[in-house]
Every structure is written in structure tokens, then in C-alpha cells.
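Morning, I've got a small favour to ask if you have a moment. I've dropped the whole record in just underneath, so have a look.
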Amino acid sequence: MLGLMQDWPLTVDRILDHAKANFPNREVVTRSIEGPITRNTYGNIWTRAKKVTGALRARGIQMGDRVGTLAWNTDRHLEAWYGAMGMGAVLHTLNPRLFPEQIAWIINHAEDKVLFFDTTFTPIVEKIAPLLTSVKLYVAFTDRAHVPESSVPIEAYEDFIHGQSTDAAWGGFDENTAAGLCYTSGTTGDPKGVLYSHRSNVLHAMAANQTDVFGCGASDVVMPIVPMFHANAWAISFVGPMCGAKVVMPGGKLDGPSVFELLETEGVTFTAAVPTVWLGLLAFLRENKLKPTTLKRVVIGGSAVPEAVLRAFEEDYGIEVLHGWGMTEMSPMGTVGKLLPEHAAQDRESQLKTKLKQGRPPFTVEMKIVDDEGVEKPHDGKAFGRLLVRGPSIAKAYFKNAGAKNDKGEALEKCGFFDTGDVATIDPLGIMQITDRAKDVIKSGGEWISSIDIENLAVGADGVANAAVIGILHPKWDERPLLIIEPKPGAQPTRDQLLKFLEGKIAKWWMPDDVVLVEKIPLGATGKINKLALRETFKNYKFPTTQAAE
């Protein structure tokens, strides 16, 4: 027997329809690429997104066609998102931090027909245009007066949508229709495309905004510092209009002074970004003896939260930190580190240890840990295992069957779960902790050492701007940890100082065998430490103790 409820497909266009109907005058504020702060509303964004749909259809774009964007977080970018997805086209966000050749490969693989871009990325567009095989239209997110001179035929966005009607139809298709495309960063092999559906995006946004996750409402002022090209801006581009929050788009200026200015002038209460952004903001606050006055909650994800950052926000400024973990294949939200009632009786240090873990999954995410044979490991907080996940917003396959593991083209394990590539523990309360990437875990004497744990501690030492740990071959122990330090400007921490700082904080056999200082630790396109590059740099490195062991 079926239920007798109305058929109401979960398509993304309904989110902006809802915002227009219920919050038409709620502001969307943007630090524009041209410089000035601009003010828009959900009602006007709905109108202009409809015009985007009309303009795309007028240029021959149809359902299923891919529409690329190479852009920062702005209201125009948001309009293009909803305009493309609303008509059933696939909105394909591109990461400008990748190498131009990678961007060109991804565009060609996706077969994008249109490329929207911010004028700051004109040099990239000019470099890749001769390599592109499917793009027929280049639209700059600006007006005619600010279109740069270029060898590429560029159309101004304002001209592109000018004169279009707001009668363009949205929706009317199956909720499982593809809505968005985002490629993994490709640190191992070619990037792979994750193809989100309308249903998965809507369900993911609702899950991400549960009370114990983002918990945003119409009284919030939300600033997505995490880029819209970084796994759907962690759902904030959907959550904002869904709950009616005022949204502040920071554009391309993500330095400490620029972020602080918007936090204060716009009264931001909730924001999200990777740790590198928060390190820059905290340094600015300390140097200038400033304090955020309206900010209540920050989500920190993309890589593990350093303890020093967590303590600074919560103890120095009274701002709640929500440690988030996920991945492109999960849309991306997987877990958030919100404490449970069971933690209320714990002392502050115990609570902090819990908050430094990756957290617990919201409804719609299932997870388990297994050994290399697929046998499930206990959730006792001690047993390590490969982290597997399942849910309605988690990929079952990659675009064009990349990485297929079965004859259906799926990228799933035999049990139907997706292997995250992480090694983790799960405690009896369901709180998960990543101990390493499967490829990054250091195997010493048959035991595992977590590079992440050591890195998070080392970042808190005096004079340390960033820290990385990699395994170096050892004749007796197979691998031993090497601690790589990027000092703060003017600082010169010593090997002995850093090792002494770690004493008592980690097991003795986890202690790095050596410490090296580098000018800059390489970061990948999403701001994570590039362990691949570090392993290449230090592939011939030998510990001082290696000769004796040999």
C-alpha cells in the first residue's frame, strides 16, 4: 500500500522559489570583483536567475548540458547556479587553484558548453581556451564596462541576461535528474567527476542544516568563505535561501582584514572555511587586538582543526567551533563535531579532545569501519579501520564510470558502501576520528602512527606556521615519521624545541625521528597539505639514526 501524499519532486529550483515567496527582501551582500560592496535580495536573485535560464535556452543549452563556472562567491555566481540547475542543465563548478592544464582537461572531460567566469580569472581562460573542445560561449560575470580586452570572445554577463523574460520554466523533471558536477582534486591519477542530483542536493542541504550541524535560521547572517567551487560551498548556497538567512558573499578577498571587515559590518553570525583562512584571521585579530562582536559559530573543515585554532576561537573569543569532515563524493558533509549530553559532565580538556575529532554523522549518513578483508571493526574508539559510508547524498559512481569497481560502473565496495580512503576510529557514542588517509598512515614496526595527530599538535608550538608529517623508509621499522615545519615569519624553532613540545603529548614511539624546516609547505588546490609533493622532495632523505640501524 502506498501513501496518499502529494507528488512534490525535490528539485533545487524549489529552494529559490521558497526564498522568493517567503524572504523576497532578505539581503544577499557581495564584495564584488570590481571592488564595491553590492546589495541584492532573494527576490531579485530569483528574477535574474530566471533570466539566466532564458539566456541559456536562447543559446541552445538544453537539459543535461554542462555549464561551467570559474568564479568566486558572489550573487552573480549564485544566479547562474540556480538559472542553470533550474532548467535541468548541470552546473559544473571549476576550481581555479588547479593548474590551467588540469582545468582544461576537466572542462573537456565534462564537455562544458558554456563557461561563466570572474574577470580575475581571465588569464586562465585565455590560456586554456585554445585547448577547449566543447565550450562555445564565454561569459564574464560583469558588465560591459568591465569586460577585459582579450583574445577570447567574451560576453558581459549583464548583456547576456539583458532583455530576457522571467517566464522561463523551472523544474518539471525527475528529482534524480543531474544538477551539479564537481571534480575531485586528482592527487592520485586524473580528477574524477562527482555528479550530484537535485534530490541529493536538497536532502544534503536539509541534513547539513539540522540543529546539531549548521543550525541556521532566518535570524542568522551567513558568510560562506568556503568557495562555491569547493564541494557546493558545503551546501551553504542551498541552506541560505532554504532557511531565509541573510547571506554575505566575500568574493575573492579572503585575507584576515577583508574577512574581519565583512564579519563586523554585516553582523555575520555563522561562517565556514578551511583552517588556513582561520589562521590568517586569528593572526590579524591578535596583531590588532580585535575581537569579532557578532560571530557565534564557525565550521572548520577541509582538513583537521589544529588545537590552537579551536582554543583561540572558543576560549579567547567565545565562538563555538564546529569541526566538519566530508568529501566531494559526500556532497560534502559527513560529520560535525557537536558535543552530546553525555559530554556535559566532562572537564574542559576532555571536551576539547572530543571536539578535535571529526564528529558524528547527521541523519542521512551511515558509516562503519572495516579491516582489509572487509570485516567490520568495533565502535570502541580504539580499533582502526577503513572508513566506509552510505547515504542518499553519497556518490555510487563517478561521471563516465571513472574508478568503476563492478560491471555496473559503480565505485562501491561489495557491501554497497563507498570507501572514503580514510582510516578512522568510531567510539561508542558514534563519534568518528580520522587517524589518517589510508595512503598517508605511517606503518612503523607493524603498528600505525597517525600523521594528522602529530601535525595538529605541532602547529601549536611557538614559531610554527604549518606542520606536516610523512613516513620515511627505515631499515628496521619500515617507516618512521619526519616532521616538516614551516616557521612563522622571523621565527626559527629548533629541532630540540619542537620535539620537547611534543613530549608527553604523543606515545614515545610516535615521536618523529627528525625535524626539518622548509620555507613553505606545499598545499593542494583545496588548501590541504600536498603530501605527494613532500614525499617527492624528501624521497632520498635519510634519518641521522638510519646509518646506525643499517
